[in-house]
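If your schedule permits, I should be very grateful for your opinion on a structural question. Please examine both parts with care and let me know of anything in them that strikes you as inconsistent. The record follows directly beneath this note:
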Amino acid sequence: MKPGIKLSLYINYFVFAILLNSVGIVILKSQKIYGVDEIQASVLELFKDMPIAIVSFLIASFLPRIGYKKAMLAGLAIVTFACLGMYWGNSFWAAKLLFASVGVAFALIKVSVYSTIGLVTNNQKEHNSLMSSIEGVFMFGIALAYFLFPAFNNENEPDSWLNVYLLLSVLCVISFIILFVSPFKESIEIPGNDLRDDVKQMFALIAQRLVIVFVFSAFLFVMIEQGIMTWLPTFNDRVLKLPENISIMMASILAISLGVGRIMAGLLTQKFTWIQVLSVCLLAAMAMVVFVLPAAVTANVGSISSFSDIPLIGFAFPLVGLFIAPVYPLLNSVVLSSLPKKLHSPMTGLIVIFSALGGTLGSRLIGWLFKNLGADQAFYYTLIPMGFLFVALFLLRKLTNDVNAAKTE
């Protein structure tokens, strides 16, 4: 794989990681600055995820005809103007428009990136490794977001945090330029004979048992991940009673652990099967919720003014990211590498659609639980989708084994 192409994939994902996963920070700021409640604030996740789902559905089947490079450049241009709009708009409606634009742009970026991975890798191990490393870089971008926003946030100047969007617009322009000048030769198989046939190919995928079980698994995982990630700053603020900036920066521990977990997954799958890695990881994640979360909730944190004042238990629960991290990239890789490369774009469209729906539902449910049951109880309910996901893994293994066996016959 040419370094220029790889660098462009990493940079695109890095920039969008910061933007997409600032939603938890903006939810917290919206409650404090724009005067909305938890349920109203959680609608930002909807404005982000529904455009991702809708645009992915509309464009994924025929994106190969447009070209992946053009799609990524269009996404970067859209989000550049969206960042400037948030800076000048400074309202809850501006935040909604920002995340709607980010959602549209990310649909273009993600389908393009995932499909390009399929074009430049030759087997499942290569696919697993590159997918995990790119998703790992995505998580480190998220971690940076949790430091970028506090760096610009001054509690004595309520609008100071908006300056971060000027920086983000500059990053988008830089990413646009790097991608524009990078050589990007696309040798793409078109799914169907024409646009109508392309769409039929995508719908035909939905009827496959392998795809049904997979999209259900992706839906469950993103429900878990986004539910925790979006509401962790609010959990830190209300349950651990941390100052606002420290609450946001503490959430970076989850993102860093997700990044490390995904990088490690790329290494572990070279020695162990994906089902072994994911089974152990999910059991460990459930153990974290059962044993570590209660200790964090009941901890007597006391007065906090810096990181050094936080007891060790305050850092423990976000480490659940180490164990849930490998699930998403490995599931995606397992299914994509089981399908012909010409179907990777429509399959990625389905991945993005159901991931977006899972993210929206997860955030909305956790927001409802935060309001009605309390911030100290909400995260316990992630055990339910974790249990369903554990069962789905073994169904998915059987179905992928059947598909791969049919290929060799």
In short: The mean pLDDT is 80. The CA atoms of residues 231 and 254 lie 11 Å apart. The chain has one domain: 3-408. The radius of gyration is 20 Å.
